[in-house]
Design goal:
Length: 218
């Protein structure tokens, strides 16, 4: 994951003379920012936050000490970040399901760009010991059956989804990985450019379909 972080809020100007600062939170409920545990500034220093009034917070460093007066608060003035969520962790899966739920019933409307074009090329590229491409099954054999299961058209408007074969929720990365191992190919790493491009293309080819997240599939 490298040094990727998620911007959670911005520390603004000091408030008063006791080291309190104004904080703009990017969480849906600003009060939730205090519950994310240690937050990191641009220098990688960890801080805990406690709200003292609306938009006004006390910050404590890793040593448990609060900012010592207005001068220390003025020196801070940095973005507050949290480490990025693992690509395939439960937290990311839950967040993706929640975000998708907010768009449930709306049509997919992805724009075509260079990532989509790269993903389309991958979709039609044969791979693995079985020498099959995604298109061989999801275009050429769509509607048929493989191992008793119907072969879908490669639309992704319901992800993350509950699949009976998984007995739980799963995301698009898991589905792609299963397909690649099924043709005996080495799956693309979760954070690779190839995986991002393939996901972008699958989203684009789902244009016009209504978002069903979280879907239910066999």
């Amino acid at each position: 994951m490298g040094d990727r972080r998620i911007l959670m809020g911005v520390v603004g100007r000091p408030h008063g003379v006791r080291g309190l600062v104004r904080v703009h939170s990017y969480t849906a409920d600003p009060a939730d920012l205090a519950g994310y545990g240690p937050l990191l500034d641009d220098a990688g220093r960890a801080w805990t936050l406690a709200w003292r009034a609306s938009g006004v917070a006390e910050l404590r460093g890793a040593d448990g000490q609060a900012l010592d007066g207005r001068a220390a608060a003025e020196r801070l003035g940095r973005d507050v970040n949290a480490p990025a969520l693992p690509e395939e962790g439960e937290a990311m899966l839950s967040l993706a399901a929640l975000v998708g739920l907010q768009s449930r019933g709306l049509p997919v409307a992805a724009e075509r760009d260079s990532a989509v074009a790269a993903g389309e090329a991958l979709f039609t590229t044969r791979m693995g010991q079985l020498n099959l491409s995604c298109a061989d099954c999801h275009d050429g054999l769509a509607g048929g059956r493989l191992g008793g299961a119907r072969i879908p058209q490669g639309r992704v408007n319901a992800y993350p989804e509950y699949r009976l074969e998984w007995q739980g929720m799963g995301g698009l990365l898991r589905r792609i990985r299963n397909c690649m191992t099924g043709v005996r190919a080495e799956p693309f790493p979760a954070a690779s450019a190839e995986m991002a491009s393939l996901r972008a293309y699958l989203g684009w080819r789902s244009n016009g379909l209504l978002v069903e997240t979280p879907g239910v599939r066999p």
